UniProtKB/TrEMBL annotation:
This is Early nodulin-93-like. The lineage of its organism: Eukaryota, Viridiplantae, Streptophyta, Embryophyta, Tracheophyta. Keywords: Membrane, Transmembrane, Transmembrane helix. The chain crosses the membrane at residues 24-45, 57-77. InterPro entries: Enod93 (IPR005050). Residues 96-116 are annotated as: Disordered.
Amino acid sequence: MPNIVTSASVDQNLALAKQCSREAALAGFKAAAIGTIASAIPTLASVRLLPWAKANINPAGQALIISTVAGMAYFIAADKKILALARQHSYENAPEHIKDTSFQGTGRPHPGFFRP
């Protein structure tokens, strides 16, 4: 039996996708803010305290280090949130026979080389 797609179901799925996108962006922004602070403090401190860093890391290098960490944190956190939401919603919308994750066995004994 073919599934009939209605305008209401499309609108509902679109609203759910927008909500998930907002949640992922918020998680990414939080992680980027924390990553920026967590990388800025040691970077700026090392440039002032360590002779090697003072000689070799110019302001552009400092900005590159800090922004790279912030960007990585944003994309990692957003990706994790997107995957978590996708997993959650795919389980909610799954048919009942897939939701039943209990192992029922195959009804036949295992071959001898698989026995414990």
